[in-house]
């Protein structure tokens, strides 16, 4: 077992885990943060996306010990003081979800992208979410929601 300390959603968490534990399993099974989903076993779907030190990562491709000393934000960490993040508001306003299974991954990919690219064009937005798959929306509503946040029109 390996002892690691990870800051998750602003709270320092000390856990003991196998060196082969995936970050997504640490989040879901040890920390009960089940908003991060597992949608594939091929690193393709992006449902497991979280933000680690400001970058979107697929948490099924990160070993939990690799997160030692780092800061991880999951979808549970987006809302503050009971208020939804503007991205969450925009996804709701623009009907950017249907079943919702992919949504937490899209939100976290969008969060990391817009935090470093606050004024993107549509092509850049589409590229930013190209690692995330949605079987329901056709993507346009997700793109619209992200552009609305960028343009401050939510
Ligand atoms: S669970 Fe599909 S990319 Fe991680
Ligand atoms: S909303 Fe259903 S998979 Fe994206």
Notes on the structure:
With 154 residues, the chain is α+β, with helices and mostly antiparallel strands. The protein has two domains: 2-76, Roll (Ubiquitin-like (UB roll)); 86-151, [2Fe-2S]-binding domain (DNA polymerase, domain 1, Orthogonal Bundle). 32% of the residues lie in helices and 16% in strands. The protein contains five helices and five strands, in the order ββαβββαααα. It has helices at residues 23-30, 86-93, 103-116, 122-128, 140-151; strands at residues 2-8, 11-17, 49-52, 55-58, 71-73. A five-stranded mixed sheet has the order 2-1-5-3-4, with helices on both faces. A hairpin with a 2-residue loop joins strand 1 and strand 2. Helix 2 packs across helix 5 (140-151). The longest helix is centred in the C-terminal third of the chain and has 14 residues, at 103-116. The radius of gyration is 15 Å and the shape is globular. The N and C termini lie far apart (46 Å). The model has no long low-confidence stretch (mean pLDDT 97).
